[in-house]
């Protein structure tokens, strides 16, 4: 075990020791995390600053499966919404796949391999903003433009990052509030994936309703076994493959169709945004598009902080002591997400980005830092985007649902439960869960952060250690911004009939 003095004075390459010198693989991985000293916005090189390990394949594969599923869902939502919103537009599955492959090529190279892999390994990969997917139809119907939305989102994110707003919000969120947020997101997400796999199996032609139940049962046993032998970091690839194998063995394979052909998508931005006759068929955005996109951009950026918080917590829960230098930096991650948002959409994409959860969560469980897996993931994603047909497998429900269930939502649920250790934490967590069920997770986080930091729930001693700005101004401002944005875009209309202000 290296001393604190050695960790401070010696470089990574000087402190590195082969795995054979450690009593266990876990001890070796712990030591690797403790000796790393990532260069912030400097060149990080394999061997000198980090190493590739077998465990890096796990978050790389998990992130690949997750992002294919997410990108496909986002682009299909845009296609459906824009087709309804604009009379001259007709977009379908071919368009969605083509745009998804654009997103998987250029941003993967620039922001997975170069940014998070070589130039700032403390910035988590910029992935997909999952909570925004259900809103994309409403965004399109409101008259928003994907490129206008991306520009606004990027600018707001850069401002928040510059003023260190992301890390400030993380520090103002107590363990009780964060735990409640993770429990709600984990439970609701898990129930959503269970419902999807059941709907898929019951919707198959013939008597195949039992397939979903058996796929779930097999994966529950497999996940429990992996947790028992401390190999939970293998959950996504193992359970995704198990879901595929079981569904095929039970005869449900006729539902799996290979339709995506090998090749490169159109990488010319002019094709996507140059006219109203090809690509997105929208042309370049005008002032009206920016005004319609504004509340959604505010809302998306407001939702970043709890998302980033959850991912950093996973590292803190799974990494050993003295690993502060390899924890993801919230503000740097926000910077990369903002730039990636604008660049990715400018070249023809349509993703709404955020910290990459299906990469970070398994990486934290596997006790691996960001860079090695980021480079592998970016490479795999680019290869799959060119091959095409693996995308058809990754979005098949027995694969996609199992990957998201065991790789994101169950670990979220477990982490949230672990954070609620005392009665004061349980109270804050309970109020957060209740508020999330009444409204939504973002509004719940903002409200319970305000209540918790003023001692109205949770730890009554907490306000004594906070300034007036930390107790009232920042949490109150966040709550007001979130509420106004949600009212503007009609997020509460479905639940309470409150019409959108815009």
TrEMBL record:
The keyword DNA repair does not apply. Keywords: Membrane, Transmembrane, Transmembrane helix. The chain crosses the membrane at residues 57-78, 99-119, 139-162, 169-188, 208-226, 233-254, 287-305, 370-389, 395-417, 429-451, 471-492. InterPro entries: DUF3360. The keyword Iron-sulfur does not apply. It comes from Aliivibrio fischeri (strain ATCC 700601 / ES114). This is DUF3360 family protein.
